[in-house]
Amino acid sequence: xxxxxxxxxxxxxxxxxxxxxxxxxxxxxxxxxxxxxxxxxxxxxxxxxxxxxxxxxxxxxxxxxxxxxxxxxxxxxxxxxxxxxxxxxxxxxxxxxxxxxxxxxxxxxxxxxxxxxxxxxxxxxxxxxxxxxxxxxxxxxxxxxxxxxxxxxxxxxxxxxxxxxxxxxxxxxxxxxxxxxxxxxxxxxxxxxxxxxxxxxxxxxxxxxxxxxxx
Length: 215
Hints:
- This protein has a single domain (4-214), classed as C8orf32 fold, CATH 3.10.620.
- The N and C termini lie far apart (39 Å).
- The protein has helices at 4-12, 18-21, 29-38, 41-57, 62-73, 81-84, 94-100, 105-118, 202-214; strands spanning 77-78, 102-103, 126-133, 138-145, 154-156, 164-165, 172-179, 182-185, 193-196.
- A seven-stranded antiparallel β-sheet has the order 6-5-4-3-7-8-9, with helices on one face.
- It contains nine helices and nine strands.
- The protein is of the alpha+beta class.
- Helix 4 packs across helix 7 (94-100).
């Protein structure tokens, strides 16, 4: 399959997530002033809407947290990195994603991942998962939530707005998933086999640095 080379390349430059996953999202005057100066007028309103969402969602059930976060970010537009950022691959921070009101599949997943971490969802229950979108015949990323370590995950996706178990997403072919604990080669329905304890990735390191500065 022609996408396998893309996946293998990404595996070889794997992630170190824990430094960011354990940090808190900070909303303050410095951030708001930066958004006012750097983006269009309605950018700040979208970021403040995100802040309100997080404030309002802490005491919700896990199902409601997943729904609210998934629904909030899926209202944004999908735009390829080359068109949006002028780069082949760029991982936007949640603020950049919201401020520009668009991003690609990685940006949707990153924003949802950090929002759920902020809402108290344990990182070990979340996986950023690379898949092949069979109907679109292209590489894609989704966010997987595991209620139990070996359960069939729920899939948060910008292609399909509904949160469904992976067993009902026959349009997706899982390849591998990861978080701060390492890399898992994906099984059809479950978590998969852990094959790497961590790693390094220039895209993730760059995202980490920008989040520490701006968020």
